[in-house]
Structures are given as C-alpha cells and as structure tokens.
Specification:
The chain contains 4 helices and 5 strands; from the N terminus they run αβαββαββα. The chain is of the alpha+beta class and about 140 residues long. Strands 1-2-3-5-4 form a 5-stranded antiparallel sheet, with helices on both faces. It is globular and about 40 Å long. The two termini are about 20 Å apart.
Length: about 140
C-alpha cells in the first residue's frame, strides 16, 4: 500500500501560477480569500491551508488552492467554487463581458482533501497542468 504524500499548498499554488497561461502576472494574496466578497472563509473552520494568486487588473484569472480537513469539506468547497463561477459570470457580464469566455470550462479539481481552482487564458492547458501536479492522470 502506497502512502500519499501531503501536498504543499503554497508551493502548488505558486507552481500553477507560473505554469499556466495568464493575461497578466498573478501575485500571491491570501488576504483575497480572507476578505473576498464571496465569503470563502465563511465556510467555517474547514481549512488546514489555502493559497491564492490573483491579478491586479480586471480579469477573472486566478489560482486558488485549498487543503480541507476532510474529504467531505473538499466536496462542499467544490460546490461553493462551482457557484463562484456562476457569480463571476454574472459580475463580469455586467462590467467586462470580454472576460466571460475565460470562465468557460473552469478548472476545479479535487484530490482527497486538496481542492484546486484555476481560471486562465487556456483552461484546457491549465487542466492538464493541474492533473499532472495532483497526479490525476
């Protein structure tokens, strides 16, 4: 039986931010999650770790990586991220409709207690990078 190595959340987020295609450089900003209007941190004490890479400009592109305490928490977070995509589509439709296509086929991946969310200029390529990083091949 092979034991799964824990995923280093900050390193994974940094790797994804450097490996996927974005229209502008993303910067590490955990306060984005802590203060975001969508309220990721209102899910209670379900996180062991989290990391966010976000742009300075007006684009939905971002990398969010979470480690939850349980796999059930990871599934609940996956549902919240799916709702977040719908929220983003509504928001960007109003003030930056040219950005909405980036929200087509978002990358939301779960492996155990690790949840990854990526919106990039090429979500199909980002999905490949995420699968490789999580060992989901």
């Amino acid at each position: 039986m092979t034991e799964t190595q824990p995923i280093d959340v900050p390193t994974l987020a940094q790797t994804l931010a450097a490996s996927c295609a974005f229209s502008e450089e993303l910067m590490a900003n955990n306060a984005y999650l802590e203060n975001h209007l969508y309220g990721f941190m209102t899910m209670g004490d379900i996180f062991n770790a989290y990391a966010a890479y976000v742009p300075a400009g007006i684009t939905p592109e971002e990398v969010l990586v979470f480690e939850t305490k349980t796999e059930a928490d990871a599934q609940a977070l996956q549902e919240k991220l799916t709702s977040y995509v719908d929220y983003q589509i509504a928001q960007y439709s109003d003030y930056a409709p040219g950005q909405v296509p980036k929200l087509d086929k978002p990358v939301i991946a779960v492996k155990g207690c690790t949840v990854v969310y990526v919106i990039s200029e090429d979500n199909a390529a980002a999905a490949e990078v995420v699968r490789g990083q999580l060992g989901l091949d």
